[in-house]
Amino acid sequence: MTKKFITTAAIAATVLFATTVSSFAQCGGASWYGPGFNGKKAASGQIFNENAMTAAHRSLPFGTKLKVVDQRTGKYVQVTINDRGPFHGGRIIDLSKAAATKLGFRNRGTTSVCIEKM
């Protein structure tokens, strides 16, 4: 019977590769939407609910869970991608009304965020 030994370096390289491949981070503008879209079909086929913790992103797969951090306040929320957008300016994400409210920027309309996969 042969014993196989895995070095610490091999384990570290595997962990680094796994986290690098699956990681995603992006910073930029965020806006929110809800009124006018509530109850209608999102791009994913789900019915959009402005009171759910969801978001629209141009390219991330539907169902992707993201941590969204407001750069002004440090507050963060977890959202699930279920729609496409935003298609305005340099914004990277459109949050539901509920997510914008929890982050505290709903009255301002936009904010600066960083997003990362969970």
How much of the sequence is in beta strands?
Answer: 25-35%
Rg value = 18 Å
CATH superfamily membership: RlpA-like domain
Helix and strand sequence:
HEEEEEHE
Query: Within the CATH hierarchy, at the fold level, what is the topology?
Result: Barwin-like endoglucanases
Number of domains: 1
The biggest sheet amounts to: 6 strands, mixed, barrel
Estimated structural class: alpha/beta
The CATH architecture term is Beta Barrel
Count of beta strands: 6
Q: Residue-averaged pLDDT, rounded? A: 86
Distance between the termini: 41 Å
CATH class group: Mainly Beta
**Uncertain segments:** 2-21
Total helical segments = 2
- Helicity level, as a percent range? 10-25%
State the strand order across the main sheet. Answer: 1-5-2-4-3-6
What's the overall geometry? globular
Function: Lytic transglycosylase with a strong preference for naked glycan strands that lack stem peptides.
EC number: 4.2.2.-
Protein name: Endolytic peptidoglycan transglycosylase RlpA
Organism: Devosia algicola
Please give a structural write-up.
It is a single chain. This protein is of the alpha/beta class and 118 residues long. It has a single domain (24-117), classed as RlpA-like domain (Barwin-like endoglucanases, Beta Barrel). Helix content is 19%, strand content 34%. It has a six-stranded mixed beta barrel. The longest helix is centred in the N-terminal third of the chain and has 15 residues, at 8-22. The termini are far apart. Residues 2-21 have low confidence and may be disordered.
